[in-house]
């Protein structure tokens, strides 16, 4: 049902998406982010499906057309009509067509060489469900399925740097929460690039006190340049501290990145089931098993029962990183998460560290009580719409419907009053960063049209998961838990 009082909000959100549409994809922000970003496009497609299922399909098709031969989906697909100086790092920094040749970078489009969280199969499934007839007529899922499968294969094989089965990120930009305090420890090992070696275009569009520091930005540049200069080669297995390991200074297993990979494995199982046939049925079963296995591995590797939160693991030290970030709440989206773990996560979300339903209007990106918390600085405390959308879906999945409804209402109010801001102050809802931001507008539409729907829309029950009792028994028998 529509919400008549929200009709102006619906119309303004649509205007943002139309204004950011380039003809084949949607930019996050015309001023600050004038190209196509990977996980932005996935979230944008989820909202865009309510306005134009065809455009939502094109959004994902355009992104995946820039996939590399090794399966990676680059985090930026550059628009060659945009001047080089409009954004840094620009195509002449990444040099994908030359530095990425051995990894199969496309020759006809410039991209970055790193990745972002794999939300794409989930987005593809939701886009299909918006208009199954159009999707089938265009063979949308049939054409995307091999690319999505190759993308997951790349992450599960080439990025298994810890040797335990989880995908590792090798740059904070890959995890998406670029400036999180969770990265401070691993980043401290990286020598910043010389200030004269790059120009920060972001400071022309945002207050310096809201953006990453120069020292941290220099570390981001150094990591990206080192990876490029190694031909974007990945290292698998546990020995990432060996001399010469490609970009080995920063190797982290992140709970949100892997939870989204697992959620997309569930979605791939549904996609295969939709496509039908004996081979597809076998692949669907394989994705279900993989999602269940990865969920157990996630709990074994990254769950901290003392903090009642998933934590990042620094693969250089082998230790869990003690910082509490919103990344640790995102596994709530997983259907096969043990009920005890889900209940603990919901306690943590309501507790003093995140303040949901209490002191905070929206879930902050970092621990409200932490020494590093900053309510305005990029990913060090502000609330973001994509992470709040995921938390709301996870709360609903695990039975906290009233809390999910309250978060949904708070998100709609913040989007309305902030002009669809990139992120907001978690206590006041005051807008920060860019305005008219793509995924904020898109997820606002999704909250208006499908805000009370389950994450795996169109699926019966919990896709790909074992019954919770069976999962709990196996976990106890096999010793799953904090290492």
Automatic annotation (TrEMBL):
UniProt key word Hydrolase: yes
SUPFAM superfamilies found in the cross-reference section: Six-hairpin glycosidases
UniProt feature, compositional bias: Acidic residues: 467-477
Domain Mannosylglycerate hydrolase MGH1-like glycoside hydrolase: 33-440
Keyword Endoplasmic reticulum found: no
Keyword terms of this UniProt record: Glycosidase, Hydrolase
Span list, region Disordered: 459-483
InterPro entries noted in UniProt: 6-hairpin_glycosidase_sf (IPR008928), 6hp_glycosidase-like_sf (IPR012341), Glycoside_hydrolase_63 (IPR004888), MGH1-like_GH (IPR054491)
Sequence similarity: Belongs to the glycosyl hydrolase 63 family.
Protein name listed in UniProt: Mannosylglycerate hydrolase MGH1-like glycoside hydrolase domain-containing protein
């Amino acid at each position: 049902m529509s919400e008549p009082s929200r009709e102006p909000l619906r119309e303004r959100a649509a205007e943002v998406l139309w204004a950011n549409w380039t003809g084949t994809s949607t930019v996050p922000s015309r001023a600050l982010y004038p190209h196509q970003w990977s996980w932005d496009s996935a979230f944008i497609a989820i909202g865009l499906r309510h306005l134009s299922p065809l455009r939502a399909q094109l959004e994902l098709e355009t992104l995946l057309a820039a996939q590399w031969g090794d399966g990676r989906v680059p985090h930026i697909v550059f628009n060659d009509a945009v001047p080089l100086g409009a954004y840094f790092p620009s195509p002449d920094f990444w040099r994908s067509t030359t530095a990425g040749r051995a990894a199969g970078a496309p020759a006809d489009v410039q991209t970055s060489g790193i990745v972002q969280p794999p939300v794409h199969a989930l987005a593809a499934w939701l886009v299909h469900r918006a208009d199954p007839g159009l999707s089938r007529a265009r063979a949308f899922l049939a054409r995307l399925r091999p690319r999505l499968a190759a993308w997951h294969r790349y992450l599960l094989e080439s990025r298994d740097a810890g040797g335990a089965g989880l995908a590792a990120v090798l740059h904070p930009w890959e995890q998406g929460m670029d400036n999180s305090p969770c990265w401070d420890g691993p980043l401290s090992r990286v020598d910043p690039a010389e200030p004269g070696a790059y120009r920060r275009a972001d400071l022309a569009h945002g207050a310096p006190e809201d953006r990453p520091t120069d020292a941290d930005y220099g570390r981001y540049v150094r990591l990206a340049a080192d990876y490029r200069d190694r031909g974007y080669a990945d290292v698998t297995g546990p020995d990432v501290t060996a001399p010469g390991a490609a970009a080995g200074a920063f190797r982290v297993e992140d709970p949100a990145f892997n939870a989204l990979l697992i959620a997309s494995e569930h979605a791939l199982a549904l996609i295969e089931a939709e496509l039908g046939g004996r081979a597809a049925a076998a692949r669907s079963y394989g994705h279900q098993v993989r999602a269940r296995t990865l969920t157990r591995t996630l709990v074994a590797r990254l769950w901290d029962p003392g903090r009642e939160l998933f934590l990042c693991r620094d693969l250089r030290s082998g230790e869990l990183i003690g910082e509490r970030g919103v990344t640790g709440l995102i596994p709530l989206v997983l259907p096969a998460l043990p009920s005890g773990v889900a209940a603990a996560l919901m306690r943590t979300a309501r507790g003093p560290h995140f303040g949901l339903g209490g002191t905070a209007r929206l879930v902050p990106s970092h621990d409200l009580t932490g020494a590093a918390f900053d309510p305005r600085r990029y990913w060090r405390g502000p609330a973001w719409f994509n992470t709040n959308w995921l938390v709301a879906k996870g709360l609903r999945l695990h039975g906290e419907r009233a809390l999910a409804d309250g978060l949904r209402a708070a998100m709609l109010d913040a989007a309305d009053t902030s002009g669809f801001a990139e992120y907001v102050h978690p206590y006041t809802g005051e807008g920060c960063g860019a305005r008219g931001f793509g995924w904020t507008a898109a997820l606002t539409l999704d909250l208006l049209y499908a805000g009370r729907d389950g994450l795996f829309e169109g699926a019966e029950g919990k896709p790909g998961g074992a019954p919770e009792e069976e999962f709990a028994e196996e976990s106890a028998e096999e010793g799953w838990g904090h290492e």
